[in-house]
Design brief:
The chain is an alpha/beta fold. Helices cover 32% and strands 24% of the residues. The structure holds zinc ion (ZN) (2 copies).
């Protein structure tokens, strides 16, 4: 079967690999398409992708082969989460599902950027969901990234009327803002790119500021929304400039939710700022199976709107999709397979 394979040089090359076999209790899914995630790009850029691996995890497809199963049959259109928690370890018992040591060990095989994948019985039970007929594949493929955002909003304890700043309006920031609105927050967006600012305004953000320098943005928040500053700041940008902007914009006693990988040399919050101002800094990484279900439902109901967030590419053009994403020419790529 066709697959985009990681090369020695950490780019992708179209090649042929063996089709995965159906194993006891699981299913083979024929991949219709797969979203290109920022984390796929980070792996290649940081040169940490395994040679010959197949990346991609935001999969939508059809059940192609399946044994005896109560819930699914051949032909069902599905989306899926790629990792399944064990529900038994200390991490799972504390709802840190994405920290479960079994979580990452339960991956789909080989990965979304190819024609067929194998999903285990555990996946079928916990993270494979049927896609409603009226929902396009591209929209359904946002189930996993939107579930990541949903979990972040829950972890930050966002309440109605909270003033929330979202720094970085890529696909994650734009989805985060919509979920924050759904939770009743007043949402302020901030980005450098005019097109993203326009989309955020269309999606109902209460205000969207073009990033200039941070004293200006934090004072706009204080004069236009709440004089003490934002109750919460969601960091959805990989730029190190986001850190001082987050610190200057959040109110004393507020929360900064980190949902971004920033290069380690430059990242870090000052200890005394956290201590004297009683700030809460927390990270959120990956969704739980329950978040996937709610996420798909919010996309189906058009509460999370994704129409303007993706561009389609064929599998053979995946390197173009990666470079267009890095160059900010598009917000997110959907790689069509079948
Ligand atoms: Zn992802
Ligand atoms: Zn566990």
């Amino acid at each position: 079967m066709k697959a985009a394979i990681v090369t020695e040089k950490q780019d992708l090359e179209l090649g042929q690999i063996a089709e995965p076999e159906l194993q006891q209790g699981g299913a083979v899914v024929k991949v219709s398409g797969c979203g290109l995630c920022g984390s796929d790009i980070v792996k290649l850029k940081q040169k940490i992708a395994k040679k010959e691996a197949v990346l991609g995890h935001e999969v939508v497809g059809h059940i192609h082969k399946i044994g005896q199963n109560q819930d699914f049959k051949t032909g069902d259109r599905v989306v899926l989460g790629h990792h399944v928690p064990c529900y038994e370890c200390v991490f799972c018992k504390n709802q840190n599902y994405s920290m479960c040591r079994g979580f990452k060990a339960t991956n789909i095989f080989p990965g979304g950027f190819c024609e067929y994948i194998f999903v285990s019985e555990k996946h079928l039970v916990n993270t494979v969901l049927k896609v409603p007929d009226n929902l396009p594949d591209e929209h359904a493929s946002f189930t996993e990234p939107a579930a990541c955002c949903l979990r972040a909003v829950k972890r930050a304890g966002v309440k109605a009327d909270d003033v929330v700043l979202v720094i970085g309006l890529g696909s994650i920031g734009l989805i985060m803002g919509q979920i924050l609105k759904y939770y009743g927050a007043k949402v302020i967006g901030c980005d450098l790119i005019d097109e993203r600012i326009r989309i955020a305004k269309d999606l109902g953000f209460d205000a969207v500021y073009k990033y200039t320098n941070d004293p200006e943005i934090s004072s706009l928040i204080k004069s236009n929304f709440q004089q003490e500053g934002a109750d919460k700041v969601f960091l959805c940008s990989g730029s190190p400039k986001s850190l001082p902007l987050a610190m200057n914009s959040v109110r004393d006693g507020g929360t900064i939710l980190v949902f971004a990988s920033i290069s380690p040399e430059e990242a870090g919050f000052a200890n005394n700022g956290i201590y004297y101002r009683e700030l809460t800094i927390l990270g959120s990484y990956s969704p739980s199976p329950d978040d996937l279900k709610i996420s798909l439902n919010l996309i189906e109901k058009n509460i999370i709107k994704v129409d303007n967030l993706f561009a389609n590419y064929d599998l053979q053009d995946i390197n173009q999709a990666i470079s267009d994403t890095i160059a900010n020419k598009i917000i997110k790529a959907f790689i069509k397979i079948f």
